[in-house]
Structure formats: C-alpha cells, structure tokens
C-alpha cells in the first residue's frame, strides 16, 4: 500500500515514462518499478496444468479513476533481468489514434510489461484460466490457427487475450474475447515484429468499457502484450460536423460497421474520408463520401492497425485521386491526397 505522497510520485513517474517523448534515468526507472510492485502487492500465481509458459510480462492499464484499483488477478509482477535492451517504448509501439471527441476516462498505464520494453526486462508469466475460459480456448483452437499456437498472454476483468499464429507462423494474431464476443486481428509476422498488432473489445455492463490490446514480438519471437482499459462516459460530445455526416455515419453502422469505430479521418475538398471497422469481415476500411448516397470503399486485410488507401475520381475535376491514411507515421496518423501529376498533399490528423 502506498501513501498519498508516494501515489503522487508514482503518477508523476508514470506520466514521464509513458507519455510522448517520455524518458527516465536509471534511478528513476528503478524507483518506478519499486512503487509499481508495492502498489500491486504480492500476487501468487498457480499455473494451470497444460498452459504454455514463457510468455513475457503483460502491461495492464486501467482508466478507472480509483487510485486503489487492484492489479489483474493471475498476473505475476516478478521481473527477471536480461541482457537484451529493446528500443524505447515510443519507437516500438505504433500510436493507437481514436476520435478525440469521445469522452473517455484516460487510461493509466502501470509498469509491469512496460518494464520489459522500456528497461530491457523480461519475465515468465502464467495466466490462470477458469474452466469456462479454458473452454473458450478449446473453441479458439478450432478456428484455423496453427496447432498448439493458441496461448493466453493476458487477462483483464474476465476478458482474455490470446496469442496465436496461422499459415505455419507466417501470420501472427491477437485474439481478445469474453465468451460472448471475440475480436481478432492478424498481420504478417514480419510486420508484427516491426509495429505489433492491435485489436479492441467493447464490454457492456453498468458502464461501457473498451479493452484494447497491442501485441509485440521480442527479438527472439516471444509475444508480449499491453492491455489498457477505457471507461466510455455516457456524456459524448457531437462527433460530426453536420447532420449530413451524422446520417452518413448511421448508414455505415447499418452496413455492419461498429459504431464506436466510425469517424472522419480528413477531407478532400468538401468531401469527407471516413474509416470504420467491420467485425464480420475483420477489416478496417477507408470510405470516400462523394455524396450522401454515393461512396467508394476499400478495406485492409490485416486488422485494425494497418495503413489504408482508397482510389476514386474527384467529382469536380474528374482527376483520378488516391488517399492514403498512414497510421504509423512518426508524426501521428496523417492523410495524404495524391492526384495525377501531384506529389501529394499531407494533412496531419
């Protein structure tokens, strides 16, 4: 248990370590690990027979305002020092951009798996599944994944995150589910080694909670997952510029897109360019709204975190046009409009 001054110190160190451009000295990093361990308290873990171990630590975040939020059950916070020192957290993780106008409680990251990435540490963790969750895993194993590749890597409030592979390891997948619903994101393993793979799940209850996961691979190919939770407030500011955009967004939801993933990424002249996630197809899409009743759509193939593009004809000039939404840019997600003969105009989002 931490005192009030120590809790303030922990929050300040977390903000410096995990914020944009965050950096800590070695003594400060050690102090952060010490305060994080003391806040979490001892958490004995009883491995479930048959589960695969050797999974690096998971980073569990929560957006609950309660300063005394308990650590995730079944998670070990013991660290084992290694010689490998990965790149900084900022360069290793692709920023997950979301609509700025959604009123959410900010996610607070607590330093468990962050230590593995930021300070060159790794660990062995066992995720203890309930009998019901083991049934979920058995069902997942029949979903076209490589035999024996499905393994739990993190859990949060009844939600489990699994690592799996497909096509003899050519694809790496992150699966997140709570028994009632499941979200899956798969990307080429080579891409996951560079930027990871992400997906998210919205859990209904007394309040909506969005559980997000981002899976990375260590230089040795072992999975490490970061988990964050955001409580979605019932007070939501208007997300769209005008009634026409509201109607267009409603039409996308009617087509099967998840409502909380539909938003405008930018404009080409007066025409909006949208994105949204279609769970039935498991794809993130880019949509050009030429008019209220006419649009062009192109969807990706590798989940929710890849760069997207779409090609269309400008309704005024008649020029062939290509829009590229670069989500992994070093300056944040940006939209680039390329016309015939142009080098492209970028609009940072």
Shape category: globular
- Please state the CA-atom Rg, rounded to the nearest Å: 21 Å
Straight-line N-to-C gap: 41 Å
Give the fraction of residues assigned to helices: 10-25%
Q: What is the percentage of strand-forming residues?
A: 25-35%
Order of helices and strands: HHEEHEHEHEEEEHEEEHEEEEEEEE
Mean pLDDT: 70
Total DSSP helices: 7
Number of strands: 19
Major sheet, described briefly? 5 strands, mixed
The side-by-side strand order for the widest beta sheet comes to: 3-1-11-10-9
Low-confidence stretches: 43-124, 343-349
Question: Which structural class fits the helix and strand makeup?
Answer: alpha+beta
Can you give keywords for this protein?
349 residues; alpha+beta; five-stranded mixed sheet; four-stranded antiparallel sheet; 7 helices; 19 strands; 20% helix; membrane; transmembrane; transmembrane helix
Could you explain how this protein is built, in words?
Keywords: Membrane, Transmembrane, Transmembrane helix. The chain crosses the membrane at residues 100-119. Residues 13-56 are annotated as: Disordered. The protein has 349 residues and is α+β, with helices and mostly antiparallel strands. Among the domains are: 4-40, no CATH class; 131-233, no CATH class; 243-339, no CATH class. It is 20% helix and 34% strand. It has a five-stranded mixed sheet. The longest helix has 15 residues, at 4-18. The radius of gyration is 21 Å and the shape is globular. The protein starts with a helix and ends with a strand.
């Amino acid at each position: 248990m931490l005192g009030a001054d120590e809790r303030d110190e922990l929050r300040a160190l977390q903000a410096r370590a995990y914020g944009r451009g965050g950096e800590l000295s070695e003594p400060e990093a050690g102090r952060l690990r010490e305060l994080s361990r003391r806040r979490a308290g001892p958490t004995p873990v009883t491995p479930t027979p048959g589960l695969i171990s050797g999974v690096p630590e998971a980073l569990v975040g929560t957006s609950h305002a309660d300063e005394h939020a308990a650590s995730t059950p079944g998670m070990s916070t013991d660290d084992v020092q290694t010689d490998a020192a990965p790149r900084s957290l900022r360069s290793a993780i692709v920023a997950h951009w979301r609509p700025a106008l959604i009123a959410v409680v900010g996610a607070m990251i607590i330093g468990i798996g962050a230590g593995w990435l930021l300070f060159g540490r790794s660990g062995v963790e066992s995720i203890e599944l309930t009998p019901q969750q083991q049934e979920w895993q058995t069902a997942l194993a029949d979903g076209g994944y490589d035999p024996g590749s499905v393994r739990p890597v993190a859990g949060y409030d009844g939600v489990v995150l699994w690592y799996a592979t497909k096509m003899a390891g050519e694809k790496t997948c992150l699966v997140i589910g709570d028994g009632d619903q499941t979200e899956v994101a798969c990307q080429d393993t080579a891409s996951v080694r560079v930027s990871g793979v992400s997906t998210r799940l919205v859990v209904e209850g007394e309040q909506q909670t969005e559980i997000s996961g981002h899976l990375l691979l260590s230089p040795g190919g072992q999975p490490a997952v970061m988990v964050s939770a955001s409580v979605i407030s019932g007070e939501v500011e208007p997300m769209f510029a005008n009634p026409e955009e509201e109607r267009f967004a409603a039409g996308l939801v009617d087509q099967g897109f998840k409502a909380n993933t539909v938003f405008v990424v930018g404009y080409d002249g007066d025409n909006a360019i949208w994105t949204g996630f279609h769970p039935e197809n498991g794809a993130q899409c880019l949509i050009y709204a030429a008019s209220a009743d006419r649009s062009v759509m192109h969807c990706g193939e590798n989940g929710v975190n890849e760069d997207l593009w779409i090609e269309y004809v400008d309704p005024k000039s008649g020029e062939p046009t290509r829009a590229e939404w670069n989500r992994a840019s070093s300056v944040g997600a940006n939209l680039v409009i390329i016309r015939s003969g142009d080098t492209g105009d970028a609009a940072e989002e």
